[in-house]
């Protein structure tokens, strides 16, 4: 199974693709961080994310997409930008017929570190170890995107395969 993890953000949007099967260490396929200029208009920034996600999906051909679930923060402006970037990722995945799963930050942290309260350094260290990387992925958005992909592979992969099989048979398992 090949999964694209998306850590949504308008200024920095982490993208990470891993490949493997539940219960085994996945392998890194690709990782990137899409950056948009804070002084650009919202339409331009969202279009840049759309184009970058389209290219990433076309190049790396994931079978599923895992997006960080937007959670309430004190800064409404940050939440709005994150939600808008998340919506772009979901839309691009839907355009390609890819199943989308939303995972909370604490769910991803628990999957990769064993603790839903892990900090960014712990997530980065465990993603580096799980994927057997020579160096940690940077910035943290890259590590978080890979963590989301790993989380989905380990926790949501079976569900995604069942849903795909049901869709292929018209719901007649």
Describe the structure.
The protein has one domain (2-168): Ribonuclease H-like superfamily/Ribonuclease H (Nucleotidyltransferase, domain 5, 2-Layer Sandwich), CATH 3.30.420. The protein has 5 helices and 5 strands, in the order βββαβαβααα. The protein has helices at 42-60, 76-95, 105-113, 120-130, 140-168, and strands spanning 2-7, 12-19, 27-35, 64-68, 100-103. β4 (64-68), α2 (76-95) and β5 form a beta-alpha-beta unit. α1 packs across α2, α3 crosses α5 (140-168) and α4 crosses α5 (140-168). The longest helix has 29 residues, at 140-168.
Q: Give the oligomer, counting copies of the same chain as homo and different chains as hetero.
A: single chain
Q: What is the CATH topology classification name? A: Nucleotidyltransferase, domain 5
Q: List how many beta strands DSSP finds.
A: 5
Total number of distinct structural domains: 1
Order of helices and strands: EEEHEHEHHH
Query: Main sheet: which strands, in order across?
Result: 3-2-1-4-5
Rg from alpha-carbon coordinates: 15 Å
Number of helices: 5
- The coarse overall form would be globular
The fraction of residues assigned to DSSP E strands is: 15-25%
CATH class: Alpha Beta
Give a short synopsis of this structure.
By secondary structure, the protein is α/β, with parallel strands linked by helices. The chain is built from 5 helices and 5 strands; from the N terminus they run βββαβαβααα.
């Amino acid at each position: 199974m090949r999964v694209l993890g998306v850590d949504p953000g308008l200024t920095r949007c982490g993208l990470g693709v891993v490949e493997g099967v539940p219960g085994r260490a996945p392998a890194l396929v690709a990782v990137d961080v899409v950056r948009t200029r804070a002084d650009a208009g919202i339409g331009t920034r969202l279009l840049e994310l759309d184009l970058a996600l389209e290219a990433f999906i076309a190049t790396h051909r994931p079978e599923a997409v895992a997006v960080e679930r937007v959670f309430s923060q004190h800064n409404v402006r940050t939440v709005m930008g994150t939600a808008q970037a998340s919506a772009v990722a979901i839309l691009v995945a839907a355009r390609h017929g890819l199943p989308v799963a939303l995972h909370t930050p604490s769910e991803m942290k628990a999957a990769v570190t064993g603790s839903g309260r892990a900090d960014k350094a712990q997530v980065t260290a465990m993603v580096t170890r799980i994927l057997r990387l020579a160096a940690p992925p940077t910035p943290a958005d890259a590590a978080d995107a890979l963590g989301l992909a790993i989380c989905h592979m380990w926790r949501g992969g079976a569900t995604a395969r069942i849903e795909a099989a049901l869709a292929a048979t018209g719901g007649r398992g």
